[in-house]
Specification:
The structure is a single chain. With about 220 residues, the protein is mainly alpha-helical. It contains 9 helices and 2 strands. It folds into 2 domains: about 45 residues, no CATH class; about 140 residues, Globins (Globin-like), CATH 1.10.490.10. Strands 1-2 form a two-stranded parallel ribbon. The radius of gyration is 23 Å and the shape is elongated.
Length: about 220
């Protein structure tokens, strides 16, 4: 024991596991006589007690700040649609091109649907909901395998498209904050227990055309 450390009889609580299985709330949900486990060794049956992995969740969804009418007023619907097109052109030549139709006509249709949704969400003309209805974008992306790396590629190319399209600086942060947060909800294939990385607008490289997000 370090002689310079103050003597105490208090014990340091165990840090919660990445999976959230050792938090007090989950432990309280166990039936009397059940014991929490955090490894296979602890799960091995050596007595009559039931061993239980506590309830938990895998992915935290942050709030999604949808854009105000400032975005459509500053950028205009034509530029918003041009941004979506530029972004998708970059995506089509990227490592995640397989998430999009290979056929040129079908690809163009997919780009238009995305542009319709984004323009309408920003306050532009209603061309998405009359055709597709009120939708959950996370659900619509379920057929496609999207992991954390795919999300980061998508975001890096969005940043490049924002710069190359000349998207107005006065509303660029507002638009980025919406897309960055919403992109987490598109992740449906986990490759680790860590939460998806966040990319605050202030941390992004300015004046750079690099299709990458900060490490």
């Amino acid at each position: 024991m370090c002689q310079h450390a103050p003597h105490t009889t208090e014990t340091t609580p165990a840090a919660p596991h990445a999976c959230g299985c050792s938090t007090p709330a989950e432990t309280q949900q166990m039936a009397p006589g059940e014991r929490p486990v955090h490894s296979l060794r602890e799960a091995l049956q050596t007595d009559e007690h039931i061993r239980t992995v506590g309830a938990g969740h895998d992915l935290n969804f942050p709030p999604v700040p949808f854009p105000s009418l400032r975005v459509i007023r500053s950028a205009g619907e034509a530029l918003i649609r041009a941004l979506v097109t530029q972004h998708h052109d970059l995506l089509r030549a990227s490592p995640i091109a397989g998430l999009y139709p290979a056929d040129a006509e079908k690809f163009a249709e997919a780009v238009k649907r995305s542009a319709d949704f984004i323009a309408e969400a920003c306050g532009g003309s209603a061309q998405y909901t009359p055709v597709r209805g009120i939708t959950c974008m996370r659900t619509r992306h379920f057929p496609f395998t999207i992991d954390e790396s795919a999300r980061e590629t998508w975001l890096g190319l969005l940043w490049q498209a924002l710069e190359e399209s000349g998207f107005p600086l006065d509303v660029r942060e507002e638009y980025w904050n919406w897309q960055e947060a919403m992109s987490i909800r598109m992740v449906n294939r986990r490759t680790g227990k860590e939460q998806p990385a966040r990319f605050a607008y202030a941390t992004m490289p300015t004046g750079s055309k690099a299709a990458a997000v900060p490490a």
